[in-house]
Predict the 3D structure of the following.
Amino acid sequence: MGPSLRLPFLETFLGAEADEGEWILHFHCFLLRDRQGHVTLVDTGIGPTSTWAPAPGALLSELAATGLAPGDVDTVIITHLHSDHFGGTIADGQPVFANARHVVQRAEIEATSVLDPVRELLDVVDGDAEVAPGVVVRLTPGHTPGHQSVEVGDFTMIGDVLHHPVQLADPTIRYVYDGDADLAAKTRLDLVGRLRAEGRLLGTSHFPEPFVELG
Ligand SMILES: [Zn+2]
C-alpha cells in the first residue's frame, strides 16, 4: 500500500462545491521486469520528502522488497511532470535511478526545468515510441500537454487519463485539474473506448486498486 490523500469527491470531479462525499487519492507506480532482466519503472510517485501528502512515498522500500536497488532500474518512464508522478526521481539534487534512461515526452519537458538534475539521463520522445523491449509509450495529452500512457502486452498504465473509477463508467465526467479539459475529455473517451474494445488490463495511478480488468 502506498500513500493516499483525501479530497472532496464532487468538487474534484464536477466542479461543484459540496461537503458530502470523500475521495481517497492513492498513488501507484509500476515496476516491469522482463525475462532478460530489463527493469522499467513507470512513474516515481510523490517521493520520500513530500510535504503535501499525509504520508511519504514508499517507492524505494517497495523496490527493495522486490530485491532490486535503484541502480538496477534500466528505464524510468514518467507519465507526466506533476510532483505525484516524478517526485521520487531526484533526491538531494541527484538522480535516484542513476543508471536509467528517463523517458519523457518533448511536449511535457519543453515548458519546465524540473528534471534538470537528470538531464544527462533524459530520453525525450515525440509521440508513440518503443522505449524498452516490448514497452511502448503513447502520447495521451490533455491532463498535461505531453502526458503519456504506457503499454506492455495487454497491460496499459493510464497515468492521469483517468483519476477515478467513475470515469471508466462514464468517460465524459471531467476532473477539475485537467490542464486542457476538452482535450483531456477527448483523450479519455478515445482511450477508454480502445481499452474496452481490446479488453485490456489497466494499471491506474490513483484508483484504490492499482489493477483493473476490462476483459
Ligand atoms: Zn496524478
Remarks:
- The chain has a mean pLDDT of 90.
- Residues 82, 84-85, 160, 205-206 surround zinc ion (CB under 6 Å).
- The chain is about 20% helix and 25% strand.
- The first helix runs from residue 9 to 14.
